[in-house]
Amino acid sequence: MEDFVVKMTPSIDKRLSSLENMVENLIRKQEELSSEIKQTIEKNNETNSMILKALEQINENNKKADDNLTILQENRKLYLDALEKIQKMEKEELKPLLEHLNTNNDLLTSNLINPSLYPRMHNLFWRSNVKHLGPIGALMGNHIGMLGSPKP
Asked: What is the pTM of this model?
């Protein structure tokens, strides 16, 4: 084929080449914008995937928190039941035992007040053991028994 040459005026030629340059610039800008749009879409996809992973972790954490809450509620119920049983047992079983122990302690105390037990109460028969303690025996004055110093 033959190349056709179109003859035109220099002003039209100038105008036409100017339009060609403008079209080329527009095409280049469109390609740049399209590559920027692709990069933005890729970044958005990455961000979306990160957000989805974070949401999945939040959901997992919420499930664990719910599980922990149910366990804590069960534990609370168990502890309250145990405390109720202890209170019942205290009223039914421990209180009579403690009262009996207090009665026995009162009897022991009243028996210790007996004047015939005075030397034993103040450890008077074992004073010689205190002398073997050396400086401690001297500090004690060799007269202090288990319940304190004897009364004359």
From this structure: 0.41
